[in-house]
Amino acid sequence: MANVFTRIGVGVGPWFRKKIIDPLVQILRRGAEPKQLAFSAALGISLGVFPICGVTVILCGMAIAVLGSHCHAPTVMLANFIATPIELSLMVPFLRLGAIISGGPHFPLTSDALKKVLTGHASREVLESILHALLGWLVAAPFILATLHLLFLPCFKILVRKFSPVPASSPKKALSSLTEVKPKVRDV
């Protein structure tokens, strides 16, 4: 697997391995449950495609705080990191979906509109387009979460089995032998 990533490019392969592959392998080796990992990865990507840049880390942090032990924090944050390029590519579809749902006008994506945003002269149209993108994300996010969870669950079952330091049946046997209590019987 390492050979594939080093063939991609001189700088991309080692970067990809250090930032994506190595953290994922560490997560898998720590023995988290596949269901929890699948949910956490789906949640991280669903929040990671939020259409306002820079907000996704805060959203993931709040989700981790609210969900507590129901999600795996490192997996949520890693998935959020992985979702960054996807976030940028989904802004326009979220904008269009929100405009369709609200029945609002079609916002023209021109260089003039971008100049207005960058110079701080955002018009009402630009602000409405941001609200449309948020609406599009709010409608799509539950479907993204559910679909990704269903896709990730079998993947994480395989990956956890492959990278688990202890075979899946051993912890149960080891735990049962440790907790087994044998009463002492005295002859009277």
Automatic annotation (TrEMBL):
InterPro entries xrefs: DUF2062
Top-level lineage group: Eukaryota
GO BP field: integrin-mediated signaling pathway
Annotated keywords: Integrin, Membrane, Transmembrane, Transmembrane helix
Residues that span the membrane, as ranges: 37-67, 88-109, 129-153
Any Pfam family: DUF2062
Segments forming domain DUF2062: 24-162
Cited PANTHER family: E3 UBIQUITIN-PROTEIN LIGASE
Protein name according to UniProt: A disintegrin and metalloproteinase with thrombospondin motifs 2 like
Organism: Actinidia chinensis var. chinensis (Chinese soft-hair kiwi)
